[in-house]
């Protein structure tokens, strides 16, 4: 289903599409295991997409993308509506878990994702398909 939603057409021959599908699938499964509500699950997937787009489209460095994550998570758990951000439907414990997940899934492997998005690769034709 995610393959269709992400509009991946070359999954069998594109390493990039396969890696991204794996990343989104792993994130979705993790969020389901966390028993996130539908709005939390949607917000989490949006956050994954936001951070990957910062890397792929905006060529953000790790430091800049961490700052963007900080801005997105700012105000979680605060009662003052002016300070709460877009992700205020997460509890403080859930926000910590999200940050931990992003750390082990994206930020620790940031150089690999930079290579995936910004290094030209020679594509080998494996079959006639």
TrEMBL record:
The source's superkingdom equals Eukaryota
The name under which this protein is listed is CBCO1 protein
Annotated organism of origin = Nyctibius grandis
Q: What is the lineage of its organism?
A: Eukaryota, Metazoa, Chordata, Craniata, Vertebrata
What is the primary gene name for this protein?
A: Cabcoco1
